[in-house]
C-alpha cells in the first residue's frame, strides 16, 4: 500500500483511513520489519481515537520480536528543539504516554556529547503537580542534585503509637564513623557501615531480601537520634554544673569555718 499527497501546501493526506465502529481500527498493518513507515513535512502520522468514553488508544503498536520496538520516533534535524516522539492527552486526568516493560517501563538516553542533557525530562504546569512521580522505590546510580527542598513525609496525621525516644546517647556512642573507598569507582568517602548501624538502629537501614546484607542507611532519619542524644548530654552537663556549684558552696563554707577557728 502506498499513498502520496503531492501538494506542497495545505492540509494534505498521503493516506486517510477511518473506522465508523466504536470498536474499529482505522489502520492495521502487519509486516516483518516495519509495520508503518511514514514521512511528512509537518506530521508523519496523525492518529486520533474519537470515542468519548472507555479506554481509547490513539496509536497501538506491538513488536512480537524479543528485540523489537513497538513505537520508534526519530527527529533527524541537527538544529532546533526537535522531538522524536510527542504524546498529548487533553483530558485533565489523562496520560500523555504510558509505558510498560518486563525490565524497564521507560528508558531514556540523551546522546548529545555536550551541554546539559537529560535522559528523561519531566515537568508539571500545575503548582501542585510533580515533574517526576514514582510509586515504589527509586534508585539513582550517580550524584543527585536538586535546587528546591527535599522533603520527607512526616505529618502527625499519618502516625500512631508516637512515643519519646529513649537511650539515644547510648546508641550514638555505639555508632562508628569510618572512612573508606568505594570498590567500583575507588572514590574516597566517609560515612557509616549499614550492617553495623542495623545492629543499633535498625529503623534507618534498608536490608536486602536475605535479611543479612544491607542496601543503605537513611542518614536523614538519624537526625532525630542525634537531637535526642544532644538533649540527653545537655541534661548530664547541667547535672554536673549543679554538682560543681554545690561543691563550691560547700568548700567556701568550710574555708570560712576554718578561718574563724584559727582566729
Task: Describe how the helices and strands are arranged.
Layout: H1 168-174, E1 178-181, E2 188-191, H2 194-200, E3 205-207, E4 214-217, H3 222-262
Antiparallel strand pairs: 1-2, 3-4
Describe the structure.
By secondary structure, the chain is mainly alpha-helical. The chain has a domain at 168-262. Helices cover 21% and strands 6% of the residues. It has three helices and four strands. The strands form two sheets. The protein has a two-stranded antiparallel sheet with strand order 1-2. It has a two-stranded antiparallel ribbon with strand order 3-4. Helix 1 (168-174) crosses helix 3 (222-262). The protein is elongated, with a radius of gyration of 33 Å. The model has no long low-confidence stretch (mean pLDDT 82).
Note the main attributes of this structure.
263 residues; mainly alpha; two-stranded antiparallel ribbon; two-stranded antiparallel sheet; 4 strands
Question: Briefly, what is this?
Answer:
The chain is mostly helical. The chain has helices at 168-174, 194-200, 222-262; strands spanning 178-181, 188-191, 205-207, 214-217.
Total helical elements: 3
Shape: elongated
Instruction: Enumerate the spans where pLDDT stays under 50 for 5 or more consecutive residues.
Output: none
Radius of gyration: 33 Å
User: What structural category characterises the helix and strand content?
Assistant: mainly alpha
Report the mean per-residue pLDDT as an integer. 82
- What percent of residues are in strands? 5-15%
- Tell me how many strands there are: 4
| Strand order within the widest beta sheet | 1-2
- Main β-sheet description: 2 strands, antiparallel
End-to-end distance: 127 Å
